[in-house]
Amino acid sequence: MSERWLHPSAPVAGDDRLSAAGWVQRVGAYAALPGLLRALGDDPGTTLRAAGLPPDALDDPEARVPYAVIGSVLGIAAARTRCAHVGLLAGRMWHLDDLGIVGEIVRHSPTVGVALRSLTGYQHLNSGGGLAFMIERPAVVDLGYAIYHPGVEGHDQVYDSVLATVTNVLRELCGPAFTPSEVLLPHARPADVLPWRTFFRVTPRFDAEFGALRFPASWLDRPVEGADPERYERARRVAESYGPGDLRHRILRALRMLMLSGDVSGEATAREVSLHRRTLNRRLKDQGTTFQALLDQVRFATARQLLESTQLSLDDIAAALGYASVSPFMRSFRRWSGTTPGRWRSDALRMRSAA
Question: What rounded mean pLDDT belongs to the chain?
Answer without folding.
Answer: 92
